[in-house]
C-alpha cells in the first residue's frame, strides 16, 4: 500500500526516484556512454589534428612552390630580354617595346610592374648618353639623382612606358644602396639577383607597397667573362623587373588556399622592418592552431615566410567538436532517461504487482472465510449442495449430497445426466417435464420433492431447492441448490398420520354406539325421562355428534394427506346439488333462526364427486348460518365466469378479521379460540373444502368486510353443453379425455380452431359413455384420470371391433411405460404440447388409418 503512495509524483519526487538505487543501471549506462564518448572524441580530435596538420603542410608547400615557380617565370622573361641584347648587340626602344608587347605582361603576370633595361654608363659616357636619349625625343631626360658617381646605371627602357613607370625613367638605380648591392652581385656573378626591400620609384601615389627588383646582367658580346672584374668590365647593363610585392603575391596566391595567412620578410628574421607582404592586415585575437616559419633562398636573398592557419581553416577541421559533444551528450541523456523510465516503470509495475498480490491474498482470505462459513452452514443444516453448469456441461455435488445416496464423492461419473440416473425411475418423466417447464418459464427459484434411488436400493425422499441463473434472453445457464433428506421427516409424519388414523378409527366405533344410544334415549324411544336428565342427555348427545364430526374431519384430512382419497367424478346438475345442500342445512337454519335462500341457479352441469361437493357446500352454509345473527339471512347464488361457475354463500355475520384472513384455509385455523366452544367446530372444515374443490379442478376463496358479512365461494369447471347426436357422417369428430382443466381446455381450443368437432370428458367413466353412444375419428387421452388409468381404456377400445382402428394420441406427463407398445395407432405426446405438434400428430395418425 505504501508503494502506491510513491508512484507518480511531483518533480522532486521524480528526482528522488532518479537518484534511487533502483535506477543505478541507468547511472552506470550514463557514465559508461560518457566515457566512450570521451574516448571517441579524443580519437576524432587527434585524427582531425593529423589531417589538419597534413593539410596545412600541403598548403605551405603549395604556397612556397607557387612563389618559386612565379619567380622562375619572371626570371625566364628577363632571360629572354637579356638574350635579345646578347644576340643583336644594341636593342632599340622600338624593339624593346615590341618585345614586351608580345609578352603580354600585365595580363599574364599580375604583380609585375614592368620589364626594363638600365644601361651601364661610365662618367665619361654620361653626356653622350643623355644627348642620345634626348635625341630620341625625350628632351627632359637626365640621369637622376644628380651628382658624380663612378658608374651610372639609369633606367633607359621600361615597358609599359606609361603611368607610374614614367617616374622611373632615367633613374640611376646604382645610386641607391639596396639596388646597388643586388646589381653589383648580379654583375659580378653573372647570375640573377633580387634586391631586399625597397620603395619603388613608381610609388608616386596611392597605397605604398613594399618593392622588389630582379636583375639579370647583360654583357657586351664576345667580351671575356671569366672573373668578376672581367664581368664588371663587360657589363652593358641590366634587364630587370620591378615588383610591387603586394600585387605580386596576390597574383601568385590568387589560386592558393585562402584559409592561411602569409607574412613574408625579406631577410632571415621576422623583423617588422623587413616585412614585405602580409596577407592579413587585421591581427588575430587568438593564437593560430597551426603555424610554420620557413626560409627560402631566392636569387641571393633569404626570405622568411610565416604561414598561419586562419579560423576558417581550423573550423573546417575542428568545427564538429561542439556538434559531436552535443549529439553524444544528447544520446547519453536520452539513453539515461530511457533506461530510468524502464527501470522505474518496472519498479512501479513491481509495486503494483505487490499491491495486487496483497489484494488477491485478502480476497483469498475473505473467500476462505466465506467458504468456511458456507461449509459450516451446510454442515449445520446437514443439507447437500449441487451445481449443474449447463454451459460447461458439468455437475458438482458436495460430499454430503453423495452420502445421502450412499455413494462416495467421485464414485459415480458426474455428468449432466447423472441426476436422471439416481432419480427414482417412476418419477423421472414427471421430474423431467417439471424441470423443462421451470426452465422455460421465467421462474428463478424452485422447491420440489423428489425421490432418489439410494445405492442400497431404497428410495430417499428429498426436498430439492434450486436457483436458476439465466442469460439476458432468459436462457438457463446454471442451476444450483441444496437437497435435504426427508426420510426422517416423512417417517415421523407417517407415524403421526397413522396414529391419528388409528386413534380416530378406534374412537369412531364406540362413539357411534354412544351417540346412537343417546339419540335413541333423547328421542324418547326408551320412554319419558325426567326433564333434568333429558337436558343432560341432550348435551351429551350433541357433544358426541360434534366429536364424531371432528373425527370424520380428521380422517378426511389424513386421507387427503396420504393421497388415499378417491373421487367419484360424475356429471351432475348444479341446481340439484345446490338444492340438496340447502335442504340438508335447513334444520340448523331453523334452529338458529336464520333464513336460508337459494337464488335461481343457472341450468348447468358440473363434473364432480357429489358427496364431496355436498360436504364443501354444507361447510360453507353451516358456517354462514352459525355466524349470522338470529333473524339474519344466508344466500346461495351462482354466477358464470367464463367456462366456470362460481357458487357463492353469503351471510350477514361479523366478517372475518383482517389479521386472520390469510390463514382461513389453513388446518385447525380459527379466528377466535373460543369459536370451537361457542359455534362448535375444529378449524378443519375450510381446509378440507379447499382440498376437495381443488381436487375436482376448481378453486375456493372468500370476500369479507368487517361488520358486513362474508361470502365464501368455490369455482368449478362447467361441462360442455351436450351437442346433438350426430349421424354417421364423415365429419371429423374427436374426443378429448383429459381431467386437468387447463390442458383440457387448451386441447379443445386447438382442435376446434383447426376445424374439428370436439367433445371433452374428464374421466374414464364419461369416456366410456361417449364411445358407446357415438363414433369418433380419433381421441386424445390422458393416462392419469381420476377414476383409473388410460391403459384400461386403450385395452377396451382395441378389443371392441367398432373402435379397434381408432387413432389415439396420448398426451401425458407420465413416463412411456408402454415401451413394449406395439400399437401403431398410438402416438405419444408429452406435456407441454403446442398446437403444431398436436395437429401434425393428428393428421399423421388419421392418414395412417386410411
Ligand atoms: P370450523 O369447524 O371451526 O368452523 P372452519 O374451517 O369451517 O372450521 O372455519 C375456520 C374458521 O373460519 C372459523 O373458526 C371462523 O373463525 C372462520 N369462519 C368460517 N366461516 C366464517 C363465516 N361465515 N363468518 C365468519 N367467520 C368464519
From TrEMBL:
<dbReference type="InterPro" id="IPR003594">
    <property type="entry name" value="HATPase_dom"/>
</dbReference>
<keyword id="KW-0472">Membrane</keyword>
<dbReference type="InterPro" id="IPR035965">
    <property type="entry name" value="PAS-like_dom_sf"/>
</dbReference>
<dbReference type="Pfam" id="PF00072">
    <property type="entry name" value="Response_reg"/>
</dbReference>
<dbReference type="InterPro" id="IPR005467">
    <property type="entry name" value="His_kinase_dom"/>
</dbReference>
<dbReference type="InterPro" id="IPR001789">
    <property type="entry name" value="Sig_transdc_resp-reg_receiver"/>
</dbReference>
<dbReference type="InterPro" id="IPR003661">
    <property type="entry name" value="HisK_dim/P_dom"/>
</dbReference>
<dbReference type="GO" id="GO:0000155">
    <property type="term" value="F:phosphorelay sensor kinase activity"/>
</dbReference>
<dbReference type="InterPro" id="IPR000700">
    <property type="entry name" value="PAS-assoc_C"/>
</dbReference>
<protein>
    <recommendedName>
        <fullName>histidine kinase</fullName>
        <ecNumber>2.7.13.3</ecNumber>
    </recommendedName>
</protein>
<dbReference type="InterPro" id="IPR006189">
    <property type="entry name" value="CHASE_dom"/>
</dbReference>
<feature type="domain" description="Histidine kinase">
    <location>
        <begin position="502"/>
        <end position="720"/>
    </location>
</feature>
<dbReference type="GO" id="GO:0005886">
    <property type="term" value="C:plasma membrane"/>
</dbReference>
<dbReference type="Pfam" id="PF00512">
    <property type="entry name" value="HisKA"/>
</dbReference>
<keyword id="KW-0902">Two-component regulatory system</keyword>
<keyword id="KW-0418">Kinase</keyword>
<feature type="transmembrane region" description="Helical">
    <location>
        <begin position="322"/>
        <end position="344"/>
    </location>
</feature>
<feature type="domain" description="PAC">
    <location>
        <begin position="446"/>
        <end position="498"/>
    </location>
</feature>
<dbReference type="Pfam" id="PF02518">
    <property type="entry name" value="HATPase_c"/>
</dbReference>
<dbReference type="InterPro" id="IPR000014">
    <property type="entry name" value="PAS"/>
</dbReference>
<dbReference type="InterPro" id="IPR036890">
    <property type="entry name" value="HATPase_C_sf"/>
</dbReference>
<feature type="domain" description="Response regulatory">
    <location>
        <begin position="733"/>
        <end position="846"/>
    </location>
</feature>
<dbReference type="InterPro" id="IPR011006">
    <property type="entry name" value="CheY-like_superfamily"/>
</dbReference>
<dbReference type="Pfam" id="PF08447">
    <property type="entry name" value="PAS_3"/>
</dbReference>
<keyword id="KW-0597">Phosphoprotein</keyword>
<dbReference type="InterPro" id="IPR013655">
    <property type="entry name" value="PAS_fold_3"/>
</dbReference>
<dbReference type="InterPro" id="IPR004358">
    <property type="entry name" value="Sig_transdc_His_kin-like_C"/>
</dbReference>
<feature type="modified residue" description="4-aspartylphosphate">
    <location>
        <position position="782"/>
    </location>
</feature>
<keyword id="KW-0808">Transferase</keyword>
<dbReference type="InterPro" id="IPR042240">
    <property type="entry name" value="CHASE_sf"/>
</dbReference>
<keyword id="KW-1133">Transmembrane helix</keyword>
<dbReference type="InterPro" id="IPR036097">
    <property type="entry name" value="HisK_dim/P_sf"/>
</dbReference>
<keyword id="KW-0812">Transmembrane</keyword>
<dbReference type="GO" id="GO:0009927">
    <property type="term" value="F:histidine phosphotransfer kinase activity"/>
</dbReference>
<dbReference type="InterPro" id="IPR001610">
    <property type="entry name" value="PAC"/>
</dbReference>
<feature type="domain" description="PAS">
    <location>
        <begin position="370"/>
        <end position="412"/>
    </location>
</feature>
<dbReference type="Pfam" id="PF03924">
    <property type="entry name" value="CHASE"/>
</dbReference>
<feature type="domain" description="CHASE">
    <location>
        <begin position="87"/>
        <end position="306"/>
    </location>
</feature>
<feature type="transmembrane region" description="Helical">
    <location>
        <begin position="24"/>
        <end position="41"/>
    </location>
</feature>
Amino acid at each position: 500500500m505504501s508503494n502506491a503512495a510513491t508512484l507518480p509524483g511531483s518533480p522532486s519526487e521524480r528526482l528522488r526516484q532518479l537518484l534511487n538505487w533502483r535506477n543505478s543501471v541507468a547511472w552506470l549506462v550514463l557514465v559508461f556512454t560518457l566515457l566512450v564518448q570521451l574516448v571517441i572524441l579524443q580519437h576524432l580530435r587527434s585524427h582531425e589534428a593529423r589531417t589538419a596538420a597534413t593539410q596545412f603542410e600541403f598548403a605551405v608547400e603549395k604556397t612556397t612552390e607557387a612563389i618559386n615557380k612565379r619567380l622562375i617565370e619572371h626570371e625566364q622573361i628577363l632571360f629572354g630580354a637579356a638574350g635579345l641584347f646578347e644576340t643583336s648587340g644594341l636593342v632599340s626602344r622600338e624593339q624593346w617595346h615590341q618585345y614586351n608587347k608580345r609578352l603580354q605582361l600585365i595580363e599574364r603576370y599580375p604583380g609585375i610592374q614592368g620589364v626594363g633595361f638600365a644601361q651601364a654608363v661610365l662618367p665619361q659616357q654620361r653626356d653622350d648618353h643623355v644627348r642620345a636619349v634626348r635625341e630620341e625625343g625625350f628632351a627632359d631626360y637626365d640621369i637622376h639623382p644628380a651628382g658624380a658617381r663612378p658608374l651610372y646605371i639609369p633606367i633607359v627602357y621600361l615597358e609599359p612606358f606609361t603611368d607610374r613607370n614614367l617616374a622611373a625613367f632615367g633613374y640611376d638605380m646604382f645610386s641607391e644602396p639596396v639596388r646597388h648591392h643586388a646589381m653589383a652581385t648580379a654583375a659580378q656573378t653573372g647570375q640573377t639577383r633580387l634586391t631586399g626591400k625597397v620603395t619603388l620609384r613608381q610609388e608616386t601615389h596611392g597605397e605604398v607597397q613594399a618593392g622588389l627588383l630582379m636583375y639579370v646582367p647583360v654583357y657586351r658580346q664576345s667580351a671575356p667573362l671569366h672573373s668578376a672584374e672581367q664581368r664588371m668590365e663587360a657589363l652593358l647593363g641590366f634587364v630587370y623587373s620591378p615588383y610591387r610585392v603586394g600585387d605580386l603575391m596576390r597574383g601568385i596566391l590568387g589560386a592558393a588556399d585562402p584559409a592561411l595567412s602569409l607574412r613574408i620578410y625579406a631577410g632571415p628574421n621576422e623583423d617588422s622592418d623587413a616585412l614585405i607582404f602580409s596577407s592579413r592586415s587585421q591581427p588575430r585575437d587568438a593564437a593560430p592552431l597551426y603555424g610554420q616559419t620557413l626560409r627560402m633562398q631566392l636569387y641571393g636573398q633569404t626570405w622568411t615566410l610565416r604561414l598561419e592557419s586562419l579560423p576558417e581553416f581550423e573550423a573546417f577541421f575542428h568545427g564538429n567538436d561542439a556538434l559531436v559533444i552535443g549529439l553524444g551528450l544528447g544520446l547519453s541523456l536520452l539513453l539515461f532517461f530511457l533506461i530510468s523510465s524502464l527501470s522505474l516503470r518496472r519498479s512501479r509495475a513491481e509495486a503494483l504487482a505487490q499491491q495486487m498480490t496483497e489484494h488477491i491474498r485478502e480476497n483469498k482470505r475473505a473467500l476462505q472465510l466465506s467458504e468456511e462459513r458456507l461449509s459450516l452452514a451446510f454442515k449445520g443444516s446437514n443439507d447437500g449442495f449441487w451445481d449443474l453448469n449447463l454451459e460447461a456441461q458439468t455437475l458438482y455435488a458436495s460430499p454430503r449430497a453423495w452420502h445421502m445416496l450412499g455413494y462416495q464423492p467421485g464414485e459415480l461419473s458426474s455428468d449432466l445426466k447423472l441426476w436422471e440416473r439416481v432419480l427414482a425411475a417412476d418419477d423421472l418423466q414427471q421430474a423431467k417435464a417439471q424441470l423443462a417447464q421451470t426452465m422455460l418459464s421465467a421462474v428463478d427459484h424452485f422447491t420440489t420433492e423428489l425421490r432418489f434411488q439410494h445405492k442400497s436400493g431404497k428410495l430417499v425422499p428429498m426436498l430439492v431447492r434450486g436457483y436458476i441463473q439465466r442469460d439476458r434472453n432468459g436462457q438457463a445457464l446454471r442451476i444450483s441448490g441444496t437437497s435435504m433428506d426427508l426420510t426422517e421427516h416423512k417417517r415421523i409424519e407417517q407415524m403421526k398420520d397413522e396414529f391419528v388414523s388409528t386413534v380416530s378409527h378406534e374412537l369412531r366405533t364406540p362413539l357411534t354406539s354412544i351417540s346412537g344410544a343417546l339419540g335413541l334415549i333423547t328421542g324418547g324411544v326408551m320412554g319419558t325421562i325426567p326433564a333434568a336428565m333429558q337436558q343432560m342427555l341432550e348435551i351429551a348427545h350433541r357433544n358426541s355428534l360434534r366429536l364424531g364430526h371432528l373425527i370424520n374431519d380428521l380422517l378426511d384430512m389424513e386421507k387427503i394427506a396420504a393421497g388415499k382419497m378417491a373421487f367419484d367424478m360424475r356429471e351432475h346438475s348444479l341446481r340439484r346439488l345446490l338444492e340438496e345442500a340447502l335442504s340438508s342445512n335447513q334444520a340448523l337454519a331453523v334452529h338458529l333462526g336464520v333464513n336460508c335462500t337459494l337464488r335461481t341457479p343457472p341450468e348447468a352441469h358440473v363434473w364432480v364427486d357429489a358427496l364431496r361437493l355436498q360436504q364443501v357446500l354444507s361447510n360453507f352454509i353451516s358456517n354462514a348460518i352459525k355466524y349470522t345473527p338470529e333473524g339474519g339471512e344466508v344466500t346461495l347464488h351462482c354466477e358464470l365466469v367464463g367456462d366456470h361457475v362460481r357458487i357463492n354463500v353469503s351471510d350477514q355475520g361479523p366478517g372475518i378479521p383482517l389479521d386472520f384472513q390469510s390463514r382461513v384455509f389453513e388446518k385447525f385455523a380459527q379466528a377466535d379460540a373460543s369459536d370451537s366452544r361457542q359455534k362448535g367446530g375444529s378449524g378443519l372444515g375450510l381446509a378440507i373444502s379447499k382440498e376437495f374443490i381443488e381436487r375436482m379442478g376448481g378453486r375456493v376463496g372468500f370476500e369479507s368486510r368487517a361488520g358486513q358479512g362474508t361470502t365464501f365461494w368455490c369455482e368449478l369447471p362447467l361441462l360442455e353443453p351436450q351437442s346433438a347426436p350426430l349421424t354417421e357422417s364423415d365429419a371429423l369428430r374427436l374426443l378429448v379425455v383429459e381431467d386437468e382443466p387447463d390442458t383440457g381446455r387448451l386441447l379443445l381450443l386447438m382442435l376446434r380452431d383447426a376445424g374439428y368437432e370436439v367433445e371433452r370428458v374428464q374421466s374414464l367413466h364419461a369416456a366410456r359413455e361417449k364411445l358407446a353412444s357415438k363414433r369418433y375419428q380419433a381421441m386424445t387421452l390422458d393416462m392419469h384420470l381420476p377414476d383409473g388409468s388410460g391403459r384400461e381404456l386403450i385395452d377396451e377400445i382395441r378389443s371392441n371391433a367398432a373402435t379397434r382402428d381408432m387413432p389415439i394420441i396420448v398426451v401425458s406427463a407420465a413416463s412411456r411405460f408402454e415401451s413394449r407398445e406395439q400399437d401403431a395407432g398410438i402416438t405419444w405426446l408429452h406435456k407441454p404440447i403446442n398446437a403444431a405438434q398436436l395437429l401434425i400428430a393428428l393428421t399423421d395418425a388419421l392418414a395412417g388409418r386410411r
